[in-house]
Design brief:
GO terms for molecular function: [acyl-carrier-protein] S-malonyltransferase activity. This protein is of the alpha/beta class. The chain contains 13 helices and 10 strands. It has 2 domains: 229 residues, Malonyl-Coenzyme A Acyl Carrier Protein, domain 2, CATH 3.40.366.10; 68 residues, Alpha-Beta Plaits, CATH 3.30.70.250. Strands 8-7-2-1-9-10 form a 6-stranded mixed beta sheet, sandwiched between helices. Helix 2 packs antiparallel against helix 4, helix 2 crosses helix 6 and helix 4 runs parallel beside helix 5. The two termini are 26 Å apart. The N terminus is likely disordered.
């Protein structure tokens, strides 16, 4: 089934789909599913034809998978392949879609806002621009755990004032979990101060300091590519990262995608919006279960389903059909 057609698909009222960002990729992703379902390989072929290189080979061999310009289209394609399989197996259309960072593009393809081919070309370029915006080794990211958001922002501001460059809150992932990004030395300084204040700090294995002001040069170039890409409002509402809101016109949608490169991912607020809208079930449509594990801790979320294996997809299909009153 095409990912863009929902006219005859029943829609859920209590379920949302989440799409992961970088860090969820793994060598050999979707291999077992591809043996059972032809659409997985077909989806990878479609995206590979658009970007001009073999995304399935990168996903399976791992060669070049850690390079941002490759990681992004591979992960996007894996998520869209799982989304299409969900419908092939009889899944309901969710009430909302939301993606973490790169995952926002997967969500927009799933909602029919842009084609998979166009999205694959965009995120390939996005990765190239992000990598070239900051020389290798000069940027860093780290997860700060156990401190409240305001304290992390304060530590970032103090470090930025006292050093060269910048460090900022990049991802508000959950209560007590904020990812920071910026100049390598300043990220190290915030990590040390967070530990001194009884928090935890974990360096992230990334080559690019995403979602901070160091990415503004990349965003300016990326905006030009966005303007030349056919985009429409999705048929399923997509909650965007920078404002935890649903765009009401395409101009807003494009603007938020540009800003997403250098502004914080408002994941905590996005998940709160889902709960405020009556969402009780979420499914993570991508390899891994990072987002599902975070969602399990939310008060209104009754169940969070990963969808990265056939067994997990089938379990989620049945549980959501029952929860939505479609089967007894």
């Amino acid at each position: 089934m095409s990912a863009q057609k929902f006219d005859h698909v029943a829609q859920a009222q209590k379920t949302a789909f989440m799409f992961p960002g970088q860090g969820s990729q793994k060598v050999g992703m979707l291999a077992e599913l591809a043996e059972q379902f032809r659409g997985i390989q077909e989806t990878f072929t479609e995206a590979s034809d658009a970007v001009g290189f073999d995304l399935w080979n990168i996903a399976q061999s791992g060669e070049g998978l850690d390079q941002t310009e490759n990681t992004q289209p591979v992960l996007l394609t894996a998520s869209v392949a799982l989304w299409r399989l969900w419908y092939e197996l009889g899944g309901l259309a969710p009430k909302f879609l939301v993606g973490h960072s790169l995952g926002e593009y997967s969500a927009l393809v799933a909602g029919g806002a842009m084609s998979l081919g166009d999205a694959a070309k965009l995120v390939n370029l996005r990765g190239q621009l992000m990598q070239s915006a900051v020389p290798q080794g000069e940027g860093a990211m780290a997860a700060i755990l156990g401190l409240d958001d305001a304290k992390v922002v304060e530590l970032c501001q103090q470090a930025t004032l006292s050093g060269e460059g910048a460090v900022e809150a990049a991802n508000y992932n959950a209560a007590g979990q904020v990812v920071i990004a910026g100049s390598h030395a300043l990220v190290q300084a915030v990590m040390a101060e967070a530990k001194a204040q009884s928090g935890k700090a974990i360096a992230l294995p990334v080559s690019v300091p995403s979602h901070c002001s160091l990415m503004k040069p990349a965003a300016e170039k990326f905006a030009l590519a966005l303007e030349q890409t056919a985009i429409e409002l999705p048929s399923i509402p997509v909650i965007q990262n920078v404002n935890a809101a649903v765009a009401t016109d395409v101009a807003q949608l494009r603007s938020a995608l540009t800003a997403q490169l250098y502004q914080s991912v408002q994941w905590t607020k996005s998940m709160q919006l889902l709960q405020d809208q009556g969402i009780q079930y979420v499914a993570e449509c991508g390899p891994g279960n990072v987002l599902a594990n975070m969602a399990k801790r939310l008060p209104q979320i009754e169940k969070a389903f990963p969808l990265d294996t056939q067994t997990r997809i089938e379990d989620a299909l049945n549980a959501i059909l029952v929860a939505e009153g479609k089967i007894a």
